[in-house]
Design goal:
five-stranded mixed sheet
């Protein structure tokens, strides 16, 4: 206002009123330090130091995880380290704020490979298709490989698991499930026990002689020889193989050296008969006497 000496005058001052600062943090209780890819993802929550406002969430590691910006629900994408921040928008009193980032790891879940085929096989079963193939979680691709062939000479088709082998023994095959987006690789081993296939040669012993050996179990594909020994005073009269009597040189050779079944792949039968040995006695009448020749 004017005085006796001064006229009225004015002065203006501008006051700058800014929003108060605040902080926000993602709640430690809303997540853990690690998850498997098949675990239930967390829903993140956060707390601001003051005021209100819309909260949002952002992942800085999208190849590993994403997050619903409004709900805070995390989605796992791959194994790795997931990093997320929270932001609260400004309200009438407080400025916006962004949290320090939080991180947790995601790892591949443990795989379970199930394989339970029939393991008892015989040497005649090659090539053998297993009675069951391996299965795994998460539709993993499965391959097969021999880890121990032993004496069997076994091999396996890597995709079909068809097993081939040449001899008896134990063959161990491993089924491997490849890693997927959610599961680590996994394996299951199966040992197939391959027994020697056999065929029975049934011997019917006749009176007055012996066929040696008697009824025999022969290995599949092997040779088996039988000999014929008549009792004293007897000889081999006939030899019958699988219901058919030998004749000619075949019979003569069998009597002399035995009969051999070669490459035995089926059951056989063998029998023989024996007859008494007979002798001819001839009487010749001499000279100077009487009599007739006799036989």
């Amino acid at each position: 206002a004017a005085t006796a000496n001064y006229a009225a005058g004015t002065a203006d001052v501008t006051f700058v009123i800014s929003l108060a600062s605040r902080s926000i943090a993602i709640d430690s209780g809303s997540y853990t330090s690690s998850y498997t890819m098949t675990a239930t993802p967390p829903t993140l929550t956060s707390t601001a130091s003051a005021g209100g406002g819309t909260k949002s969430y952002t992942s800085s590691t999208a190849p590993v995880c994403t997050v619903n910006s409004s709900s805070g629900l995390v989605a796992f994408v791959s194994a790795g380290t997931c990093t997320i921040t929270a932001t609260i928008a400004a309200d009438a009193t407080y400025a916006s704020a962004t949290s320090a980032s939080i991180s947790f790891t995601t790892t591949l879940a443990t795989q379970t490979v199930t394989w339970a085929p029939t393991t008892a096989l015989s040497t005649t079963a090659s090539p053998a298709t297993p009675s069951a193939l391996a299965t795994a979680l998460g539709s993993a691709t499965i391959s097969y490989a021999v880890t121990s062939a032993g004496t069997t000479g076994c091999t396996v088709n890597s995709s079909t698991a068809v097993l081939t082998f040449t001899a008896a023994g134990s063959c161990t095959v491993r089924a491997t499930a490849a890693a997927t987006a959610n599961y680590a690789a996994g394996t299951a081993d199966v040992t197939f026990v391959i027994s020697q296939a056999t065929r029975t040669i049934t011997v019917t012993q006749g009176a007055n002689g012996i066929i040696a050996p008697g009824t025999t179990t022969a290995n599949y594909g092997s040779n088996q020889t039988f000999t014929f020994t008549p009792a004293t005073g007897y000889s081999v009269a006939s030899i019958t193989v699988n219901g058919t009597a030998l004749s000619g040189s075949a019979l003569t050779n069998a009597i002399a050296s035995g009969y051999t079944f070669t490459n035995v792949t089926a059951a056989h039968t063998l029998t023989a008969t024996y007859s008494a040995v007979t002798y001819t006695i001839t009487y010749k009448a001499g000279t100077g006497g009487s009599g007739t020749d006799l036989t």
